[in-house]
Structure formats: structure tokens, C-alpha cells
Amino acid sequence: MSARLKLTLSYAGFLMVAGALLLAAVWVFLLRYVPNRAMLIDPDDRPTQGVFPIRSALLAVFAPRAAAVLAFLLVFGLVGGWILAGRMLAPLTRITHATRMATNGSLSHRIQLPGREDEFRELADAFDTMLARLEAHVAEQQRFTANASHELRTPLAISKALLDVARTDPHHDTVRLVDRLHAVNTRAIDLTEALLLLSLAGQRSFTREQVDLSLVAEEATETLLPLAEKHGVTLETCGDIAPTTGSPALLLQLTTNLVQNAIVHNLPEHGTVRVHTDVRPESVVLSVENTGERLTPQLVSTLTEPFRRGTERIHTDQAGVGLGLAIVKTITQAHDGTLTLTPRPTGGLSITVELPA
């Protein structure tokens, strides 16, 4: 049976039970105050010869009328219940229609259920929110796939071109060709490893352990100290012990990406990078600030998207593959944290990662 038919039968059954109880109460009330038999008396106070059964006569009158009332309540309950159930289930029809459209691939449709705030309205609004997030996620995945295909195609195309040149020109400099092929191949490997790391973090397929972010920050800065000296950047590390739970390898990768990003995209000389850890009542915070050029909020809001680079990011020898901050964002989300990017008024960027304590 359909939900509408079940509700209709429920309404009609409840109405029938209520009507039967009401009629039973009336009958009990009548029996309480009506005698079983009565004798007729004439005006001269002389008893008549007949004794009349009042209750049986009352039952003969009451029973068919009670049956008629119950029949009316049955018909009224079925018709009224069918109409009321249809009106109450109407929002589910719109939700079902939107679900079928989403199943067929149309994620732009929204229910937008009108009316008061009730359970159906909350369900419709939650479904609309889910569709909006799903549509945004699918669009992001499509952009990511297109960009990844383009990024992977570039080193392969360059390798093919170099090999074609070497095959057609036997006097080509072999040492230079090998060096260029090695550089192109290294970039392709870095890109592939970054994509694998991004996939691993997104799947949350890792074991959680106790991790101190302050120790992770110290390890990352010590590893990247030669890179900082090469770029003339001063590293500053300070803060409190910041215990959290998660993957030590992924959190180290997150911190390394942040510090490396801060070193590479800094002032040409005399730049600084400040790494700070802090403890809050219910969370721990890792902050990385760096000097550099002034950034607009519009540009900063796009830096965590895969393969998004500012113009200053393309012409450096440590430009990376465009997945550094995207990996940071994915690792942060996998650890149930929040990532905040804020442009500094004097130039540069301030990045904050907040994780559960």
C-alpha cells in the first residue's frame, strides 16, 4: 500500500474508533438514567394494565441511528483522510521529483519548498543544500580532472618533442638532451606523487596517532632551512606544545608545504617567515606568515584550488606543480580542521590551520 492509502486508512480508523467510543458513552449514560421498564398511570391515579420495556424500545431506536452515524464517519474519514493525506504528502512529491532529476545528472534543480517551517520544509532545505554542495563538488572535480590532464600532458608532450628532435638531428647535444629530459621527467614524477598524496588525504585512509604540531613545525623548518638560505629568507619558529591526533606524515607534509610556499613566494631579499603554534580551549593552531608582495582577497580566495598560481608563481625555480595549498586544504579537512588564508596589510600571506585538540 502507498503511504497515502495507509494514512487514509489510519485517519478513517481513528475517526471510527472515536465515534464508536462516543456512541458507547452516550448509550451508557442513557442506561444509567433510563429505567428498564415503566408502567403507565392514568389521570385518576389508577395503574393501567400495560408495562412497557423502555430500554429495549430505546435500543431499537438508537442502534440503527448509531450504525448510520458510524457509516457516515467511515465514508467521511476515508474521503477526508485521502484529501488530507494528499495535501500533507505533496511536499514529498516535489522532493521525489528533485531526487529523480539528480539521479539523472541534473544537479542544478532546487526544491525551494514554500510554506511554514516544518519537518518537510527542513527536509527540502537540507536536500537543496546537499544538491548545491554536490554540484559545486562535481564542478570542482571536473576542473581538477581537466587541469590534471593538462598538467600531465605537458611534460609528456615536451619529452616527445625532445626525442623527435634527437631522432631527426644525429648531431644534437646528447648531454643537454638528457638533462632536459631528466628535468621534465622529475616534474612529471612530482606531479604524480602530489596527485597520489591528494587522493590519499581525501580518502582519509590513514591511522590517527598523537602528534605535536610544534615538533612537526621544527622538523619542517630544519628541512627547509637550506632553501630559505638560498632565497635569503629568515625562518622564525616559536609557540607552545600543540598536541592533536592525526597522521604524522600528512601533518608534516602540510607544514612543509606551508613553509615552502612561504619561502618561495616571498620578497626577493631579506624576507621573513614566521611559524607559530598555539593552544586554544578546544583546538590547536599552526600559523605561517611570510612577507612578500601585496595580495588581493580575490586572489587569496583561489590559492587553495588545484593548479591555481598567481603570475609571480610561474617563473620561479621552485614553482612546484600547483598543488601545494590544495594538498594543505585536503589534509586539513581530512583532520576535521579549518584552513584560513588572509592577506597581510604590509604584503605577504598569513595562513592558519586549526585542528581539534
Instruction: Give the number of domains.
Output: 3
- Estimated radius of gyration: 39 Å
Count of β-strands: 9
Sketch the topology as an H/E string, one letter per element.
HEEHHHEHHEEHEEHHEE
Number of helices, counting only DSSP H or I runs of 4 residues or more: 9
Under CATH, the topology of the largest domain is which?
A: Heat Shock Protein 90
CATH class of the largest domain: Alpha Beta
Fold topology:
Layout: H1 3-33, E1 37-41, E2 47-53, H2 54-103, H3 119-168, H4 174-203, E3 209-212, H5 213-223, H6 225-230, E4 233-239, E5 243-246, H7 248-264, E6 271-279, E7 283-290, H8 297-300, H9 324-334, E8 338-343, E9 349-356
Helix pairs in contact: 1-2, 2-3, 3-4, 4-9, 5-7, 7-9
Protein described:
With 357 residues, this protein is α+β, with helices and mostly antiparallel strands. The chain has three domains: 3-106; 139-203, Helix Hairpins; 209-356, Heat Shock Protein 90. Helix content is 59%, strand content 16%. The protein has nine helices and nine strands. The protein has helices at 3-33, 54-103, 119-168, 174-203, 213-223, 225-230, 248-264, 297-300, 324-334; strands at residues 37-41, 47-53, 209-212, 233-239, 243-246, 271-279, 283-290, 338-343, 349-356. The chain has a five-stranded mixed sheet with strand order 4-6-7-9-8. Strands 1-2 form a two-stranded antiparallel ribbon. A hairpin with a 3-residue loop joins β6 (271-279) and β7 (283-290). α1 packs antiparallel against α2 (54-103), α4 (174-203) packs parallel to α9 and α5 packs across α7.
